[in-house]
């Protein structure tokens, strides 16, 4: 009827003149993250501000890669003749595998692209590694750092070096242009939390006799 009130427009057709404060804040933080990450990518290419340091950064990159850590841990597990050492190494292997799975799941869900200034020459990049969030290197660095400090008896200078290694690996991800800052920060938090899962699920001859029977 002519006098009937007009039907309201669907919500998606309405112009949102007052976007939410949370939306504005998140958009602003994302813009700051992208801007700062690009500014800090000083080793992203040979022509970058610190391009001459790029080879060193790539060595640091390899030191935090999952494949060397997995192979080294598995080799140590096979060569160890101490039951206590085998228990620690088996749990480190479990921690590294858990890290790979969790990072892959989050990357597959978020699917955040790598920074545009990243040069895709990474060491062994497969599957979801094409995505950026979170940084697997940062996650692994935090996890391994906590694990080593908890289960290896080290002198204070060596403990400091382990912490510095974790920090340098994480910072190098932004310097190389591999990740944005939020990728690295979330990766560090995730790795820190994953160590708690490893401790809670600690594998021992009492809790996992079948695994220890293999070794």
UniProtKB/TrEMBL annotation:
Intracellular or extracellular location(s): Endoplasmic reticulum membrane; Nucleus inner membrane
Keyword terms: Endoplasmic reticulum, Hydrolase, Lipid metabolism, Membrane, Nucleus, Transmembrane, Transmembrane helix
Cellular-component GO terms for this entry: endoplasmic reticulum membrane; nuclear inner membrane
Its membrane topology: Multi-pass membrane protein
Enzyme class: hydrolase
Record keyword Ribonucleoprotein present: no
EC number: 3.6.1.68
Coiled coil: none
Broad class of the protein's primary localization: endoplasmic reticulum
Reaction catalysed by this enzyme: (2E,6E)-farnesyl phosphate + H2O = (2E,6E)-farnesol + phosphate; presqualene phosphate + H2O = presqualene alcohol + phosphate; (2E,6E,10E)-geranylgeranyl phosphate + H2O = (2E,6E,10E)-geranylgeraniol + phosphate; (2E)-geranyl phosphate + H2O = (2E)-geraniol + phosphate
Listed Pfam families: PAP2 (PF01569)
Annotated TM spans: 89-110, 152-172, 192-214
Any one GO MF annotation of this record: sphingosine-1-phosphate phosphatase activity
Gene Ontology terms describing biological process: lipid metabolic process
Family: Belongs to the PA-phosphatase related phosphoesterase family.
Protein name: Polyisoprenoid diphosphate/phosphate phosphohydrolase PLPP6
